[in-house]
Amino acid sequence: MFDTMTMTKVVGAFCGTLLVLLLGGWVAEIIYHPGGGHGDEHAQAYSIEVPETGAAGAAAAEETGPPFEEIYAVADAAAGEELWRNCRACHALEPGVNGTGPTLHGVVGREVAAVEGFNYSGALRDVVEVWTPEELDGFLADPRGYAPGTAMTYGGMRRAEDRADLIAYLATFEG
């Protein structure tokens, strides 16, 4: 079925195709990477600046908006009651009732780690002494970034308005 000439044509076609592919790659390398081969360091013709991410980037983004004091001054405690549903899985608002987390009754203005009978992680005591609205805002924005090593697993609340509303709602439960 195959004679010598057919086999020679098949091998020649395969080698010719391979040669065209190699030459095409070589030409493309010259066009798109002029002046050298691999390993040559070339400066970028145009660099795009990328904003920082993480805690520093979040803090910088927060600084561009109005200060928290202004947001908190117009906070809506009724809207904060709706946001409370995220917290009640682990916390209670009744005095002396602890869940996975300590009771949040009277948390605004309370000393950190002051709830009797709750085993706090040491991370919070190292960061802050009293839960002011501003300190609660920082903690609720990014608990693990604010107090590295905290046992709180909540991912954080993005919007400053939501945090202010929640803190205003918690402030209605004074100890």
TrEMBL record:
Keywords: Electron transport, Heme, Iron, Metal-binding, Transport. PROSITE patterns: CYTC (PS51007). Residues 75-174 form the Cytochrome c domain. It comes from the Bacteria. GO terms for molecular function: electron transfer activity; heme binding; metal ion binding. The keyword Cell division does not apply. The keyword Transport applies. InterPro entries: Cyt_c-like_dom (IPR009056), Cyt_c-like_dom_sf (IPR036909), Cyt_c_1A/1B (IPR002327). This is Cytochrome c552.
